[in-house]
Amino acid sequence: LFRRGRRGMTLTEAGRAFLPHAERALRSLRDGTMLVGQLPIADALILGAAPAISTYTLPGLLVRFDAVRPDTRLLVRTGHSEDIVELVVRGDVDVGLIRAIHHPDLESRLLLEDELALVAQPHHPLARRRRITVAQVRDARLILFDRTSSFYDLTRNLFRQAGSPPRGVLELDNIDAAKQMVLAGLGVALLPITAIRDELASGRLRRIELVGTPPIERQIVAVRRRERSSPSPAAEAFWELLAPTIDA
């Protein structure tokens, strides 16, 4: 492109042919830089959440956050808790909302204790008893959901330990579908309280106490990376919004 001489640099024939393209590229770069400089700087918050948490817990948190930072651009990615952990570790997500999982690179903040409750449609035979043993569930159709979730394992372990696996099982891939099946009277299910609070309050679902079994609970936590190079103001504000909480 250039020919070096005693009086300096001159363009070769190839250089003269390339020159207008280089000038256009520089003009485009200057225009783009100017355009970006004129745009308002919008803070962004990227959250990750497990499916049930994104449906039943996250909306309330976002309402509170939007009240204090209404101009923040919000992005939410969903996936199972293990997937969200990986996203947070890689820095693809600012804060993850998941069931409690320990990871050395993450710090966590307790959000709530979610309990599994055995529920049925009010006209279901078991709903009339109010208090039953695990063995009595054996004759009912048990509705399970999402084999990859901790709720599935908690439910299966409960019946396995009691030595009374249910005779009929209906498996689904998400909590909402399982809840609709119970509402339709197709069986009973152990569902998280956060997912059925409205139905219990309205009487559309009835809780049945399991006698002789401890409460079935799991912790829901927020996680973020311990080492954060330059956390966004929005991410810091959201983290603080979760207080008062128990840090871990």
Describe what you observe in this structure.
The protein is an alpha/beta fold. It is built from 8 helices and 12 strands. Strands 3, 4, 5, 6, 7, 10, 11 and 12 form an 8-stranded mixed beta sheet that branches. A two-stranded antiparallel ribbon has the order 1-2. It has a two-stranded parallel sheet with strand order 8-9. The longest helix has 26 residues, at 13-38. The model has no long low-confidence stretch (mean pLDDT 87).
Features:
alpha/beta, eight-stranded mixed sheet, two-stranded antiparallel sheet, 248 residues, elongated
Task: Explain the layout of strands and helices.
Layout: E1 2-5, E2 8-11, H1 13-38, E3 44-49, H2 51-56, H3 58-68, E4 73-78, H4 81-90, E5 95-99, E6 106-120, E7 131-133, E8 141-145, H5 150-162, E9 168-172, H6 175-183, E10 189-192, H7 193-202, E11 206-211, E12 216-225, H8 233-241
